[in-house]
Write a structure and sequence with these properties.
Number of domains: 2
Largest sheet: 6 strands, antiparallel
Number of helices: 0
Structural class: mainly beta
Shape: extended
Order of helices and strands: EEEEEEEEEEEE
CATH architecture of the largest domain: Roll
Distance between the termini: 34 Å
Helix content: under 10%
CATH class of the largest domain: Mainly Beta
Strand content: 35-45%
Radius of gyration: 19 Å
Number of strands: 12
CATH topology of the largest domain: SH3 type barrels
């Protein structure tokens, strides 16, 4: 992210790495809690940490007008694909109880740090 630096009077690139505010990861099952796709469930395909967004399978579909590109074997026309959704608009679905839940963290006896379901206290990580 660009930040205005007062000392130099120029735009500088911020060196600090951004971190996703939610503990949701790729291949997690989530449910959309707000917006036009409210109630839909899907699997996280991609995590865009720098924008705090998630791409979820079958949710937030958009239509893209693409030009044909014979070199890459791309046909032109309307292509429907998933767009990013802000991480605050989704909630993780617990694999044990099947309910949308918040996540907690716990250190197991073998030293692993795992994510746990706040409703059933079940371990979310495999």
């Amino acid at each position: 992210m660009k930040v205005w630096e007062l000392a130099t009077g120029n735009w500088e690139l911020e060196t600090e790495m951004s971190r996703l505010a939610t503990p949701i990861r790729k291949n997690d099952n989530v449910v959309v809690i707000t917006g036009k796709d409210r109630g839909k469930r899907g699997r996280v395909l991609k995590v865009l940490a720098e924008k705090n967004r998630l791409v979820i399978e079958g949710v937030n579909m958009i239509k893209r007008h693409t030009k044909p590109n014979p070199q890459r074997q791309i046909k032109g026309g309307l292509v429907e694909r998933e767009a990013g959704l802000h991480a605050s608009n989704v909630q993780l679905v617990c694999p044990e109880c099947g309910k949308p839940t918040r996540l907690g963290r716990r250190i197991l006896g073998d030293g692993r740090k795992v994510r746990i379901c706040r409703k059933c206290e079940g371990v979310v990580d495999k």
